[in-house]
Amino acid sequence: ELKVEQNPLFLSMQEGKNYTIYCNYSTTSDRLYWYRQDPGKSLESLFVLLSNGAVKQEGRLMASLDTKARLSTLHITAAVHDLSATYFCAGDGAGSYQLTFGKGTKLSVIP
Amino acid sequence: GAGVSQSPRYKVAKRGQDVALRCDPISGHVSLFWYQQALGQGPEFLTYFQNEAQLDKSGLPSDRFFAERPEGSVSTLKIQRTQQEDSAVYLCASSFAGGLDNEQFFGPGTRLTVL
């Protein structure tokens, strides 16, 4: 059974700073996903990582995947207030379609 | 463009009532998923359809929960004899099963409150 752990669960950072959110998963996962959720809203897909060494970037966010370490990271560069949200990582296991989510990282960017 | 839609957006039920939650997936998406998200938690898988076939219902918490997708498009999640612990946001997601990335697109959710 796939388990996904994120840390930290809460992150308060100043604008302009860099930080990384970590996502560990327990068993093989074909794909690794990152989602963003604003309060009271649904999940917005940010990245889908398909293979070892995959790196994807969008604006101030960059996601990477190390399948050997079963670790994905979401790096935030020069944070701005608009990035304040909860970020979830999720895996779909091996040969499965259902997503198993971490508990989420609630990010607050302080001016 | 049309995304995944869900209705109602909010539902208040008295304990013991039956509720029905509707999901309209993105047109052409073969796969449909239901997830339950408790307050402050990540979504948890409930059930999965490919077209009209329910291929996995391992996440349904009890036999009070029932889902269907009779024509392979719209899906309904029904909860019978609701209990307070059923209070959560119910999210529907769809994906184009043929895609390599299995990217799932989520609807806005239905927030169910059981009094």
Structure description:
The complex is a heterodimer of chains A (111) and B (115). Chain A is mostly beta strands and 111 residues long. Chain A has strands at residues 4-7, 10-14, 19-25, 32-37, 43-49, 55-58, 61-66, 71-76, 85-91, 100-101, 105-110. Chain A is 0% helix and 54% strand. The radius of gyration of chain A is 13 Å and the shape is globular. The model of chain A has no long low-confidence stretch (mean pLDDT 93). Chain B has 115 residues and is mainly beta. Chain B is built from no helices and eleven strands.
Number of DSSP strand runs of chain B: 11
Total number of helices of chain A: 0
Classification by helices and strands of chain A: mainly beta
- Radius of gyration of chain B, in Å, reads 13 Å
Rounded to an integer, what's the Rg of chain A over CA atoms?
A: 13 Å
Taking pLDDT < 50 over at least 5 consecutive residues as the criterion, the unreliable ranges of chain A are none
Average pLDDT, all residues of chain A: 93
- Shape descriptor of chain A reads globular
Spell out the blueprint of helices and strands:
The complex is a heterodimer of chains A (111) and B (115).
Chain A: E1 4-7, E2 10-14, E3 19-25, E4 32-37, E5 43-49, E6 55-58, E7 61-66, E8 71-76, E9 85-91, E10 100-101, E11 105-110
Parallel strand pairs in A: 2-11
Antiparallel strand pairs in A: 1-3, 3-8, 4-5, 4-9, 6-7, 7-8, 9-10, 9-11
Chain B: E1 5-7, E2 10-13, E3 19-24, E4 31-37, E5 44-50, E6 53-56, E7 65-68, E8 75-79, E9 88-95, E10 105-106, E11 110-114
Parallel strand pairs in B: 2-11
Antiparallel strand pairs in B: 1-3, 3-8, 4-5, 4-9, 5-6, 7-8, 9-10, 9-11
